[in-house]
Amino acid sequence: MSTNSVTVPDIGDFKDVPVIEIHVKVGDQVKLDDPLVSLESDKATMEVPAPFAGRVAKVLVKIGDKVSEGAPLVLLENTEASGSVVSALSTPAASKQERSESEPSTIAASNSERNLSRLDFTGVHASPAVRRLARELDIDLTRIKGSGEHGRVTKDDVKGATSGGSAAVAGTAGIPEIPAQDFAKFGSIETKPLSRLKKLSGPHLHRAWLNIPHVTHADEADITDIEAYRKMLDAAAKEKGYRVTLLAFLLKACVVVLKEHPEFNASPSPSKDTLILKRYYHIGVAVDTPDGLVVPVIRDVDHKGIVELCLELASLSQRMRDGKIAPADIQGATFSISSLGGIGGTSFTPIVNAPEIAILGVVRAAMKPMWDGQVFQPRLMLPLCLSYDHRVIDGALAARFARRLADILADVRQLIL
User: Fold this and answer.
1) How many angstroms separate the CA atoms of 396 and 60, rounded?
2) How far apart are CA 283 and CA 253, in angstroms?
């Protein structure tokens, strides 16, 4: 058994990059490409993956340490690999050589071996983030010609392979790229760089939109009574330094319906032939920040009351706006809510936050005349926009989910049943 030091891979021109998260501890068993640590530059957060399967013998860094290319991060025990230092950009060459020497040259590589090559991308000059993106998009890096320095495969190369660009993989159907235009010839222009958040969230949203057959079901809830109750609680809360918002009630109401319809609190398995039902209720809440939307996660909503949720929402939103976000804050959601109620609108189609199954969008409530069987009564109606993965959820089930949610919001007493 050999022990190998996993080092910081080639991360471009960045130096003294801080370690923001450590994903493993001594004794952990890791698989190929399991994240070991996360680093954060001024442009992106990057995970350093395990270059081979093994056991963590020692963690050589701590959160806050600043590292550069070649710095040792983790000691991994590996029974097959040889050598003392392994970059996270490469896989153990010895094991590959042993496999090739033990196979007759007249026998073609099997499907499983081709799949293994596709997994480890042996010999490809690409960063961990690019390798991860390629696996998520099911792109074979070994068939892409890198456009970066010294033939490095970049994220743009991988994205181009999915969209029919110049780096497209041979034989892979893609979405035609929008033709480039010289906008300056039509008038004055200004080039504004995307924020780091948008650079990170953009590819994720694009993948979700391309992979999930989105359908949005619209309904509306009568929140006249719950709004009166909220205002009463909020008046008392102001004196104590916090606010009671409708979002807290939405969180609690969603949990009630998720328990009744567990298909919405689930994710498809990697094989796509089973559904993983989750028995915990962590709900993501889209927060508007100066750099773009962030979706922090409120954990164990079913175990928290309205006041506790309001305090947590206020604290979490402030940390998001201050840029004090940690990877754990945005991971593990089972369902999401995107609220535009403070801005306006009548409806929209929120994008499902894969691998979740559904997301609830709400906009500004409006007073409407509603027929009670005898006369029209003024009622405060909240639009509900439920987007869902049509591979798992059909229209009838989505309609039942939204209607049940509307019923609960119309009667606050159902939140304590």
Assistant:
1) 53
2) 12
In single-letter form, the type of residue at position 268 comes to P
Residue 332: inside a domain: yes
Given 125, 206, 214, 390, the catalytic residue: 390
Same domain, 97 and 220: no
Q: Confirm whether 125 is domain-assigned.
A: no
Of 285, 350, 287, residue with least CA distance to 323: 287
Give me the torsion for CA of 96, 102, 105, 108, rounded to 10°.
-70
Q: Using the 3D structure, point to which of 84, 102, 120 is the last residue of a domain.
A: 102
Q: Are residues 94 and 240 in the same domain?
A: no
* Residue 371 one-letter amino acid: W
Residue 166 resides in a domain: no
Total number of domains constituting the chain: 2
Query: Which CATH number characterizes residue 15's domain?
Result: 2.40.50.100
**DSSP states of 36-74 as a string?**
EEEEE-SS-EEEEE-SS-EEEEEE---TT-EE-TT-EEE
Task: Name the β-bridge partners of 72.
Answer: 7
Q: What is the pLDDT of residues 364-405, one digit of tens each?
A: 999 999 999 999 999 999 999 999 999 999 999 999 999 999
As a dihedral over the C-alpha atoms of residue 173, residue 178, residue 181, residue 186, rounded to 10 degrees, the angle is 160
Backbone angles phi, psi at 407, to 5 degrees: -65, -40
Active site residue 204: no
> pLDDT tens for residues 221-278?
999 999 999 999 999 999 888 999 999 999 999 999 999 999 999 999 988 889 999 9
Residue 310: which domain range? 213-416
pTM of the model: 0.61
241 burial (CB, 10 Å; 0-12 / 13-18 / 19+) is exposed
Asked whether residue 349 is domain-assigned, the answer is yes
